[in-house]
Design brief:
Chains A, B: It is an enzyme of class 1 (oxidoreductase). The structure is a homodimer of 347-residue chains. Chain A is built from 11 helices and 12 strands. Chain A is an alpha/beta fold. The structure holds 3-isopropylmalic acid (2 copies).
Chain lengths: 347, 347
């Protein structure tokens, strides 16, 4: 655990500004007095793109790299063509900083609504690969715009890339009470990538004899996530399947209002980035209606990553208690929720 | 509408035998007396694979081609390595017979259980592309079995292939009361394929000015399928996204016990194939526990494809009435449900 935290803060677009302010409030309240928190704000996102045409330059990356971690609000605005900020900023950062573990916990806290009948027990975490698969920008098109156009997308999968994320997932599974790891893929159709994932999953498993394992096709996973979500403990999966699985996981476990995530470089060669799963929600931006809980839970993931486990636990507990008390009460503003969480964490 | 139906029947593995028997019973009961039904049974699946090593030969394809349509129970058994029958039979048939429309309706019938709270209104149909995308078997691996292995999967997308399935989906949307079509893709990341799908979706839409359209990323689709499934009318999507979306759709709209599907070649150059979405369920095979409703609903899709709309309507109504009467009653056997449905359809 470091005696100081040098944090890059990227509020971004829409509600990003509002939720990040509350995240920082709770972070300050949680840190031990002797820990020095230094933050530097970066104005990435739609505003900068419109002003300069830039999304993320080499110079930006060099500056960001000098931090211990990054806290992001949300990037994206309808005024920017679809894909520009996603690829030019979000994915660029994941690849540049080798964020090969995309960590997305799904926990249905008591009192929180779920679209599922009977409020099942949900407490699992998805370890999504973040630097390979169909996300590498490989692919192209010929005869574009003609009736003979052919477009390809190439999923790239390496033993190196899969092994490190699979090992990370086993380690996380081993540290949890149930010690269970599920590989999600589609190895009956995507045979080359699927075979590589399956073989590595089995080989690395030998190093973790106390972790029980199983395999599910991604389509069957959809069914279990809504009929039997309690069966999952840790899921490890590829970049695209992970994108799909984690949105469904967020939806069934209380919605994206409480879904946190980390884009992690476990080797610590690069700073990791923590962000709520929700987007910039331009329709409610500036209205102080956004729930900062997902950002605050992302701050807890950030603290855990930096070794502040006790502080992260206090934040998780504060959010859980706050959520449990909400039922039947009038909705509070973004700031009110942030204040309440900071008070709980400090007290 | 033909005066006779020449049907290839593939009971297949596990519960396939049992459910197909009931499907044929209801089909016979539904057909007008003057329509001659000829059926020929084919023994594809695990048994044949073990006996001969064959899954589907050129000779088999030539024989199947001579029929008006194919009714399939289920293919797959744990004794056969994962992928062998899927690719060697199911996918081979889809590609050989150019089944470019994979039609999967999702309707939550009154009285049927759903994992979703509040039993929302669900009545939509997914038109999944069946002959392209990441399902074409393109891809490979180098340095297999070494720490330097690299495996690829290539998604192939053609203007020709997308346009025909998109047009089919618009036509189906136009024939429904709500006339709404949603394109599901991930065009902010899979830019080459995504751009092609999006451009064709918009261009073909000009021919259907009365159909309203929207676009959703596949990850956001997951959220809406569990929080707002009533927003969907017709969905058109790529082969892999369709695989994932339709299993979730089946799960929320009553489970795979009632999920029907058609692998359709709209040009009628090849026979189309109809099958329940569920698999061979070896754990309950031979116990007369399987619900034949999904197969019976697939028979209705088959009849509609061949122009027997009134007969298809009668079958749909019979299944709906039967499902509505089940609540609180003791479970019936596969045969009892089939008998009840046949009686309703005939009566
Ligand atoms: C915005 C988009 C590029 C991103 C992804 O697909 O990874 C998002 O959906 C996510 O899950 O973080
Ligand atoms: C068995 C498998 C090849 C198949 C698919 O992926 O299409 C199945 O999941 C389906 O949806 O029909």
């Amino acid at each position: 655990m470091s005696r100081s935290i040098n944090l890059a803060v990227i509020p971004g677009d829409g509600i990003g500004q509002e939720v990040v302010a509350e995240g920082l409030k709770v972070l300050s309240a949680a840190l031990p007095q002797e820990t020095k928190l230094e933050t530097k704000e970066y104005d990435f996102g739609a505003r900068r793109y419109h002003a300069t045409g830039q999304t993320l330059t080499d110079q930006d990356l060099a500056e960001l790299k000098a931090h211990d971690a990054i806290l992001l609000g949300a990037i994206g605005d309808p005024s920017v063509p679809s894909g520009v900020l996603e690829r030019g900023f979000l994915l660029k950062l994941r690849f540049a900083f080798d964020h090969y573990v995309n960590l997305r916990p799904s926990k249905l806290f008591p009192g929180v609504g779920t679209p599922l009948a009977g409020s099942p027990e949900i407490d699992f975490v998805v370890v999504r690969e973040g630097t390979e698969g169909p996300y590498t920008g490989n692919g192209g098109a010929i005869r574009t715009g003609t009736p003979h156009e052919v477009a390809t997308e190439v999923s790239l999968n390496t033993a190196y890339g899969i092994e490190r994320v699979v090992r990370d997932a086993y380690t996380r599974a081993q540290a949890r009470p149930r010690k269970k790891l599920t590989l999600v893929h589609k190895n009956n159709v995507l045979v080359h990538a699927g075979s590589l994932w399956t073989r590595i999953f089995e080989a690395v498993g030998k190093e973790f004899p106390d972790v029980s394992t199983d395999y599910l096709h991604v389509d069957a996973t959809m069914i279990f996530l809504v009929t039997q979500p309690e069966r999952f403990d840790v899921i490890v999966t590829d970049n695209l399947f992970g994108d799909i699985v984690t949105d469904l996981a967020a939806a069934v476990s209380g919605g994206i209002g409480v879904a946190a995530s980390g884009n992690i470089n476990p080797s610590r060669e690069f700073p990791s980035m923590f962000e709520p799963v929700h987007g910039s929600a331009p329709d409610i931006a500036g209205l102080s209606k956004a729930d900062p809980s997902a950002t605050v839970l992302s701050v807890a993931l950030l603290l855990r990553h930096l070794g502040y486990d006790a502080e992260a636990d206090r934040i998780d507990a504060a959010v859980q208690a706050d959520l449990a008390e909400r039922a039947g009460k009038p909705a509070r503003s973004t700031v009110e929720i942030g204040d309440a969480l900071a008070a709980r964490v400090a007290g």
